[in-house]
Design a protein that fits this description.
It comes from Pongo abelii. InterPro entries: Leu-rich_rpt, LRC72, LRR_dom_sf. There is one protein chain. This protein has three domains: about 160 residues, Ribonuclease Inhibitor (Leucine-rich repeat, LRR (right-handed beta-alpha superhelix)), CATH 3.80.10.10; about 60 residues, no CATH class; about 35 residues, no CATH class. The chain is about 30% helix and about 15% strand. Helix 2 links the parallel strand 4 and strand 5. The protein is elongated, with a radius of gyration of 29 Å.
């Protein structure tokens, strides 16, 4: 084994590789600006940087009005270059080597996010990063290791209720109902209690029925309006849900005149004539 009198520290090698990657990224961005004829950063609404063999990307915060960004089919490992692109609505990061998405929570306007064919393994960290994206409607995560988790799809739907298209498949109402039953035991219990006219126990949890702390209650001498002894829910959404389910049900019925036979039909007594039907409308 030969001895190198001037060894290069490993940190220097990594730093040099990172600088080279950033230079390559900078050239790719400048080339795109020339192709599109943009002279001002404020005029840039989209950047097409796919299939550039990029391992890193320079900070893109200078493009304040950037809305569409294509970075698919590269060799990216992380996302640290989108800290102030608040107008970004479509982001294509599929077919990379991304193993974490820390930094995406800075994109509140994101509507489409493609992350399939990557190396994401931590489903909890991924969901945590995406929870704040209230406008996210289309999401793809298939062909990632995290997809191997049991009930992966329902878990994503539960934590990201605004998503309408997941992994190229529409989110169905059946999936949303199943999601509530599996992951939100308290809300499922509330529905069942109201359905069977039972008393709602906000503290019930099938996972730990004996260790759950009792529901907080306001002292009986504390009254507001005409209501006393109100159950306090830890989650405001549950309180709203219970209130909506307790509203009186109003039912309106009327004759469906389209099914009533005419005088001629009654006279001819046509065979197979169905009896008149009632229309019922239920409102809560």
């Amino acid at each position: 084994m030969s001895w190198d009198p001037n060894p290069v520290p490993r940190c220097w090698s990594l730093r040099r590789a990172s600088e080279t990657a950033l230079q390559s990224s900078r050239r790719a961005v400048e080339d795109q600006l020339k192709i599109c004829g943009h002279k001002r950063d404020a005029d840039v609404f989209e950047l097409f940087l796919s299939k550039k063999e990029l391992t890193e990307v320079i900070d893109l915060s200078r493009f304040k009005k950037l809305k569409y960004l294509w970075l698919h089919h590269n060799k990216l490992h992380g996302i640290t270059f989108l800290t102030r692109n608040y107008c970004l609505t479509e982001l294509y990061l599929n077919n990379n080597a991304i193993f974490e998405i820390e930094g995406l929570h800075y994109l509140p306007s994101l509507h489409i996010l493609l992350l399939h064919h990557n190396e994401l393994t931590n489903i909890d960290a991924t969901v945590k990063e995406l929870k704040g994206m209230l406008n996210l409607k289309i999401l793809s995560l298939y062909q990632n290791p995290l997809c191997q988790y049991n009930l992966y799809r329902l878990y994503i739907i539960y934590h990201l209720p605004g998503v309408e298209l997941l992994d190229r498949n529409q989110v169905t109402e059946k999936e949303r109902r199943s999601m509530i039953t599996i992951f939100n035991h308290k809300k499922a219990h509330i529905v069942q209690s109201i359905a069977f006219r039972g008393k709602v126990d906000a503290s019930w949890d099938p996972k730990s029925p004996f260790k759950q702390k009792p529901a907080q209650r306001i002292p009986s001498d504390f009254a507001f309006a005409n209501n006393v002894d109100k159950t306090v829910f830890d989650d405001p959404e549950d309180a709203v849900f219970v209130r909506s389910m307790k509203r009186s049900v109003m039912t309106f019925s009327s004759m469906n005149w389209d099914t009533v036979p005419t005088r001629e039909e009654r006279y001819l007594e046509e065979e197979g004539t169905e009896p008149a039907q009632m229309l019922t409308v239920t409102l809560r």
